[in-house]
Amino acid sequence: MSNKIIVTSEKNRIGKSLYCAKIAMELSEANKKVMIVEFSEKNKSISEYLELEDQIIYDLKDALDGVCNIDQALINIAEKVDLLPTPRLKDKLSNIETSSFNKLIAELERHYDYIIIEVSKMSQFYCINLRDINSVIILNDNEFSSLAQINDDFIVASENNVKNKFIIINKYSVNRAKKNEALNIKDFNKVFPKPIVSFVKYDDRYDSLKSDYFLAKNNDELSKIVEDLAKKIC
């Protein structure tokens, strides 16, 4: 049975696409075959970041509806890493039948060691039995609103006995925390058990990353966090 991972955040432009791709690449380095299921409508898709939009003919919703088979919808983004892209049209992912989604996941489990599912809000992700999920990665920043948002998904994961729960405070603003304009590291450690919280300092270059960063080995702070995550997930 495949190892199933959810990557989630209630915020846009927080790094879900980046983490999905980087974790998939790390797992593929361990000779694992990985599928990314992009079940999230957002401002910028994984295929856009990877400059693969021209390869999209069908998408995840088409595969779910039987308009095409899975092989016709997937995009190969690297050796041993495939993507089922989110629809370009907004709201196309509404009214998904649970049976169709679970059938798709069951089919993917026949061919992939890991299935990474990107979702916007785990507490609203009704399509899959969360008790079948092995790991949940919750992304957010250190804005004051983040604590409640993270806690919502963390509680859902705990109630469904998800074994591995990881929280990544991405784009952590040191300056704003020092000025008490945002949460600091101590605030998070008071609420969530150690050592599940990781902090990646804000770096504006992450907002303009190209495909070479997504798909290549790097030695920066974010890449080290991802490498450590991949080891724990394995």
Describe this structure in words.
The protein is α/β, with parallel strands linked by helices and 234 residues long. Helices cover 36% and strands 20% of the residues. The chain has 10 helices and 8 strands. It has helices at 16-29, 46-49, 60-65, 70-73, 98-109, 146-159, 174-178, 185-191, 211-215, 221-233, and strands at residues 3-8, 34-39, 75-78, 81-84, 114-119, 135-140, 164-172, 197-201. An 8-stranded mixed beta sheet has the order 3-4-2-5-1-6-7-8, with helices on both faces. Helix 1 crosses helix 10 (221-233). The longest helix is centred in the N-terminal third of the chain and has 14 residues, at 16-29. It is globular. 40% of the residues are buried.
Q: Give the low-pLDDT segments.
A: none
Question: Could you spell the SSE succession in H and E letters?
Answer: EHEHHHEEHEEHEHHEHH
Helical content stands at: 25-40%
Biggest β-sheet description: 8 strands, mixed
What is the beta-strand fraction? 15-25%
**Widest beta sheet: strand line-up:** 3-4-2-5-1-6-7-8
Distance between the termini: 13 Å
Number of helices: 10
